[in-house]
Write a structure and sequence with these properties.
The complex is a heterodimer of chains A (434) and B (328). Chain A is of the alpha/beta class and 434 residues long. Chain A has a single domain, classed as TIM Barrel. In chain A, 28% of the residues lie in helices and 22% in strands. In chain A, the strands form five sheets. Chain A has a six-stranded mixed β-sheet with strand order 3-2-7-19-20-21, covered by helices on one side. Chain A has a six-stranded parallel β-sheet with strand order 11-12-13-16-17-18, sandwiched between helices. A four-stranded mixed β-sheet of chain A has the order 5-4-1-6, with no helix packed on it. With 328 residues, chain B is an alpha/beta fold. Chain B has two domains: 171 residues, Aspartate/ornithine carbamoyltransferase (Rossmann fold, 3-Layer(aba) Sandwich), CATH 3.40.50; 148 residues, Rossmann fold (3-Layer(aba) Sandwich), CATH 3.40.50. Chain B is globular, with a radius of gyration of 20 Å. The chains are: A alpha/beta (434), B alpha/beta (328).
């Protein structure tokens, strides 16, 4: 459907947390923008009508962390394949970490990533700029230039900065340009080659453990630095109850700290590693049921402002080795919505709250307040999903090139029916559209 | 999935031997009883039985080992199998071949059983998951996870000296954190119903939540061996001295090294064990290692019989399966 065409989405339940909307409302689109919510404008004659009966109509999801593997690891996935997977998952904007090859530490690479994504047109890709040159943790990067090249935030991917002074300076410099700093809270010395949560299961399996303190020590350090620098810090992928408590306490004290959690951390625990299941090899690791429950509560309360996929597609070989030798991470875009909806099913949070953590919450963290909401006049980035659809995840049918998921063969509930990017249908699950 | 799910076939037969975690007393006892029967083979004029004749057993050692590899080799030969010894440090993985390629290539040579030692926890499970259905995998030590044949030979040695496990107090001393031997021993002792299992060491060498495995934790050697029937000393790798785990060999020996004096609190008939090789003057002094309570060399001899038992059980499961499938 070309820009300029007109379209109405009718009979759905419209949920737009940013505007406090949760009601049966139609939505009308022209020229790629939302022209009306509720009644159509006088004389509006849509060329196409999507019947969203029984479905939820909400802003397209904003994913704070999805790796596309391009440039540099195209044997795993490409920008084309993974933005298509994003569209199939209801994600209309995503932030990719700067650990591509070459790294996103120069404007040229940031532009390359954005332009490639634009050419394919499945999702908006917002590359995070590298906080230090070469992600080496020594020399800060040209953050102003990266910002101009379209990097909304600065990140150090999953590589901790060990030099505390560099961390401080990087935060201060980023704050000069009102750039949030995305941090992977991990003390690498405490991680010490660990590959799963240090506790009951790691003791049984004899796998080197990653203690809770590997996360909490880093969060404590970075909160202290952020407070002094007056910087905006975002903790990417919390895994422990204690770290969530520390972020909550910092927020109460007025520190500009935010946090997200990978959807899988809200569902699985250390026990799911089972008999060395390399699809449960994650960094940060799956932790205890107590941690998972505390992370869920922090999502419900808003301390954790975003649920993200932490999508890491891998080629099959990356997971074919003894557990510690496998590459961590899961192909997670396509399970983002059904896993998040489990919080609604299990009474942890209501639907509007869960959708807020997938839309307006992450948009705010990115400093992109126009994303993740449905305003008249705004670009029509929309996700329409069936909250009750039950389906089985078949790896062979995934849109992502990465089939590394612990949910293979599992029955999931909630499935995206249509995704619209600037009014254009970029994903339609069936031929139901009329 | 549980770690022991892979190793039993549909009829409960032992297909692979990967871990003791989850094995019940019946099968552990069967292994010990069967090993008892094999003890005599070493004393016969012809030291062979034909249970694995015509089978190819590959010893796949990705980590150095003398004792374990040699006793596996002897066990296989006494079962009349043909044995391949591959020390992979110097072989094809050094050229970038993946573990899976190594496995596939050896399967193409019609190997019936792999005896695998590897530095990564879970390596034996990985082999078992990917091996062809007619192939068995025996874990000869994977990372810190499991060394089940060592634990079974230890159980065999204990049973020969002490009989019933129920009244026994067994103390395991040293580097529990990094020890696959200790983990397997704890599971085996629990499975066989030992009265009390203790682990003894400084906090840096005790893994978190080890009590969940069924062991009581002690940090004082004298207290830990008090009234013990069996004292098992673990090997302390020299590289543990270079990190922040321990200050020095001197202090370690002073606190956790076994001497006759420190054995005083144990039962008078307590036996002392060690999986070898011993660091004399670190884990124990020579007086104990060579003394009357030491059963360390017996452990080595028993290792052959126990490994024969386990290998023949797995090959037996293969044979039954082959007959059942009608493809010989």
């Amino acid at each position: 459907m070309a820009d300029g065409a007109t379209l109405s989405i009718c009979n759905g339940r419209l949920v737009d947390p940013a505007n406090g909307l949760d009601a049966p409302l139609d939505l009308h689109i022209a020229n790629g923008r939302i022209v009306a919510i509720g009644a159509a404008p006088p004389g509006f004659a849509p060329e196409r009508v999507l019947d969203a009966r029984g479905q939820v109509v909400c802003p397209g999801f904003v994913d704070l962390c999805a790796r596309l593997r391009e440039p540099g690891a195209e044997q795993k996935a490409t920008i084309a394949s993974e933005t298509r997977a994003a569209a199939a998952s209801g994600v209309t904007a995503l932030c990719c970490p700067p650990d591509t090859q070459p790294l996103i530490d120069t404007p040229a690479v940031a532009q390359l990533v954005r332009q490639t994504a634009q050419r394919h047109g499945f999702a908006r890709v917002l590359p995070a700029g590298a906080l230090t040159q070469g992600l080496a943790g020594a020399q800060i990067s040209e953050m102003e230039a990266l910002k101009r090249a379209g990097c909304p935030v600065m990140s150090h991917a999953d590589r901790p900065i060990t030099n505390t002074l560099v961390q401080r300076r990087a935060m201060e410099y980023a704050a000069t340009f009102d750039l949030a700093v995305f941090l992977h809270p991990e003390d690498p010395h405490l991680r010490a080659g660990g590959c799963m949560h240090e506790g009951r299961v790691s003791t049984r399996l004899g796998l080197p453990g990653i203690p809770e303190a590997a996360e909490t020590v880093a969060v404590a350090r970075d909160l202290a630095l952020a407070e002094q620098a007056g910087a905006r810090v975002h903790f990417r992928g919390l895994s422990t109850a204690r770290a969530a408590e520390m972020v909550a306490e910092a927020q109460r004290r007025g520190i500009a700290a935010s946090a997200d959690v990978s959807a899988v951390q809200l569902i699985l625990t250390e026990d799911d590693v089972g008999a060395f299941d390399s699809n449960c090899h994650l960094i940060p690791p799956l932790r205890t049921a107590r941690d998972r429950d505390a992370l869920r509560a922090a999502v419900a309360s808003g301390v954790i402002g975003a649920i993200c996929s932490d999508h890491q597609p891998h080629d099959a070989d990356a997971k074919l080795a003894p557990f510690p030798a496998t590459a961590p991470g899961i192909s997670a875009l396509e399970t983002l919505l059904p896993l998040a909806l489990r919080l609604v099913d299990e009474g942890v949070a209501d639907l509007a709250t869960v959708i807020a953590r997938l839309t307006a919450g992450p948009a705010r963290i990115l400093g992109k307040p126009l994303l993740g909401r449905l305003d008249e006049g705004a670009r029509a980035d929309i996700c329409i999903f069936d909250p009750d659809a039950r389906w089985t995840l078949e790896p062979g049918q995934m849109a992502s090139l990465g089939q590394n998921t612990p949910f293979a063969g599992r029955t999931l509930e909630g499935r995206v029916s249509w995704t619209l990017l600037a009014g254009r249908i970029v994903h339609a699950r069936t031929a139901e559209s009329r | 999935m549980r770690t022991d799910d892979l190793q039993r076939d549909a009829d409960g037969g032992l297909k692979h031997f990967l871990t003791i975690d989850g094995l019940d007393r019946a099968i552990l006892t069967e292994i010990l009883d069967r090993a008892e029967g094999f003890l005599g083979v070493s004393e016969q004029a012809v030291k062979k039985v034909p249970l694995c004749r015509g089978k190819i057993i590959a010893n796949l050692f990705f980590e150095n080992s003398t004792r374990t590899r040699t006793t596996f080799e002897l066990a296989a030969k006494r079962l009349s199998a043909d044995v391949l010894n591959l020390n992979i440090n110097t072989s094809s993985t050094a050229k970038g071949e993946t573990l899976l390629d190594t496995l596939r290539n050896l399967e193409a040579m019609h190997v019936d059983m792999f005896v695998v030692r590897h530095a990564e926890s879970g390596a034996a499970h990985f082999f078992a998951q990917h091996a062809a259905p007619h192939v068995s995998v025996i874990n000869a030590g994977d990372g810190r996870h499991s060394h089940p044949t060592q634990a079974m030979l230890d159980m065999f040695t204990i049973r020969r000296h002490k009989g019933d496990f129920a009244p026994l107090t067994v103390a395991i001393v040293g580097d529990i954190l990094h020890s696959r031997v200790a983990r397997s021993q704890i599971h085996a002792l629990r499975g066989l119903g030992a009265g009390e299992i203790r682990v003894i060491g400084p906090r840096t060498l005790i893994p978190p939540e080890v009590a969940d495995l069924g062991a009581h934790i002690f940090h004082d050697l004298r207290e830990g061996v008090r009234e013990a029937d069996v004292v098992i000393m673990l090997r302390l790798q020299r590289e543990r001295m270079t990190g922040a785990l321990l200050p020095s060999e001197r202090e370690y020996f002073h606190l956790f090294g076994l001497t006759e004096a420190r054995l005083e609190t144990a039962k008078p008939d307590a036996i002392v064990m060690h999986p070898g090789p011993i660091n004399r003057g670190v884990e124990m002094d020579s007086q104990v290692a060579d003394g009357p309570r030491s059963v360390i060399l017996e452990q080595v001899s028993n290792g052959i019989a126990v490994r024969m038992a386990i290998m023949s059980m797995c090959i037996g499961t293969q044979n039954r399966r082959g007959q059942g499938d009608g493809d010989g």
